[in-house]
Amino acid sequence: MACNQNSSEFPTISKCETYGRTNQTVVSDLDGTLLCGRSSFPYFALVAFEVGGVLRLLFLLLCTPIVGLLYYFISESAGIRVLIFATFAGMKVSDIESVARAVLPKFYSSDLHPDVWRVFSACGKRCVLTANPTVMVGPFLKEYLGADLVLGTEIVSWRGRATGMVKSPGVIVGRNKADALLKAFDDVDLPDVALGDRITDYPYMRLCKEGYIVPPATSELQAVTVDKLPKPVVFHDGRLVQKLTPLTALITILWIPVGFLLACLRIAAGALLPMPLVYYAFWALGVRVYIKGTPPPPAKKSTGQTGVLFVCSHRSLLDPIFLSTALGRPIPAVTYSLSRLSEIISPIKTVRLTRDRTTDANMIKKLLEEGDLVICPEGTTCREPFLLRFSALFAELTDELVPVAMLNKMSMFHGTTARGWKGMDPFYFFMNPSPAYEVNFLNKLPYELTCASGKSSHDVANYIQRMIASTLSYECTNFTRKDKYKMLAGNDGTVETGKPKVAPGKIMGC
To answer: Tens of pLDDT along 255-268?
Structure first.
């Protein structure tokens, strides 16, 4: 929420020394303190859209003026109660927890205050006091920032659904923060350092040995970079690319019906036009396709030449389609799982892998005898600049391997999902005002680096992974499909015909 005036009662955070604090406890506010942004609206808006859809987001947006009036003329607590009710009322608590685990950490981590994080991370024990619901902020604070204790507003639920009400003692603001801190800590064990950004934080700050105020973040202040985070956000879910302010939320709501019609037109152009014309149709419809490198010519069946296996990094289920668009001819693709709707509207042939090694190997060999083929050996998509572990099966089946570095750009919606219905993935991608795809054909793998020369399939797969990662300036990981879906959705990511329900390994250098 908005900040009240600062006071000289406490020194600014820049004057706080961090040396020798490993045995000390720190307590910090969230919005405007740990986070640069002072408004919690963007995060409530994310929950509203990801769980309740566009209508819930619209309802929240319509309630925003009421929230502002209550905050300024009655109390901060009253405004936050309306915000919580408008967002949570009627939602399944499990859905809120899912968004808090899979969606919000990406957005929270991109807004971490550098000066506050410098002090917060230097202390051995960490506590966060916040007016935000604990169910919403807890996963990020504990799993990504190492918070030992999160004292936030507790919501009321009935039969697994949030009522929109809050439990006693109410919203954790003002004096309630001090009371919550006294209840959680003994008088002799109160935190050593308190961090806050507004006058309403002073009651709990006065309880601690040291207190530091965080001035309002300026536009020049740069949030903590990814490499400084204790745990990088490799996997995240959700449809929205950016945080929503009230203005961007309104723009998004107004754009969705227009964007859906535009997406249908773009999908129809890709599915109905001859492949040599799709490239030009996409450009005419605002879809940017950039081609780099020199692809190999089509295989000649008359000479007994087998097809080339294009080995792609996996950014969305549209990778094989944009590869075909770049080549000007349809290239069949083998997939690990695909919704029935995506199969129906696909302009190229798709063949499902069975996950039986022998069956899949025979199927891929047969397809290569018929011509070129595309495969994404990561087995699932990753939005961040990381490559997941490459399955090595493809390297055993052919020596005609062409790595392809795929890169896509979206400004409004993500074209992938782990928790939602995958059938909407292509629609969401094409709903972006001007989505872009870059298809970078790398050099064909030399004979001496293939299995035919004695290399193991794992060595070949790892080499291609490193080659693509180097081209994209990405980082290689040991993460797999199961790691991603276990973290984000609680399953192995297998798609049947309906909607899927929804511990990462270590990152390794390339």
So the answer is: 999 999 999 999 99
Which residues have C-beta within 8 Å of that of residue 73, sequence separation ≥ 6?
A: none
Confidence of residue 506 (pLDDT cuts 50, 70, 90): very low
Burial of 220 (0-12, 13-18, 19+ CB in 10 A): exposed
Contact status, residue 313 vs residue 406, Cβ threshold 8 Å: yes
Q: Which residues pair with 31 in a beta bridge?
A: 35
How far apart (Å, rounded) are the C-alpha atoms in residues 192 and 186? 13
pLDDT at 218: 87
Partnered with residue 166 across adjacent β-strands are 155
Q: What is the dihedral angle through the alpha carbons of 334, 335, 340, 343, rounded to the nearest 10 degrees? A: -40
Helix and strand counts by DSSP (H, E) for the chain: 18, 16
Find out whether the peptide bond into 169 is cis, omega within 30 degrees of 0: yes
| Predicted pLDDT at 3 | 39
**Is the entire prediction scored with pTM above 0.85?**
yes
**For the segment 277-319, what is each residue's pLDDT rounded down to a tens digit?**
999 999 999 999 999 999 888 877 656 668 899 999 999 999 9
| SS3 state at 185 | coil
Question: Given 3.50.50.60, 3.10.450.320, 3.40.50.1000, 3.30.200.20, which CATH number is that of 13-228?
Answer: 3.40.50.1000
Of 250, 248, 226, the C-alpha closest to 236 is 226
Half-sphere exposure for 104 (CA within 13 Å, toward CB): 32
Q: Where are the domains of the chain?
A: 13-228, 247-488
CA–CA gap between residue 430 and residue 433 (Å, rounded): 8
In 298-398, which ranges are continuous DSSP H helix? 319-327, 340-345, 357-370, 393-397
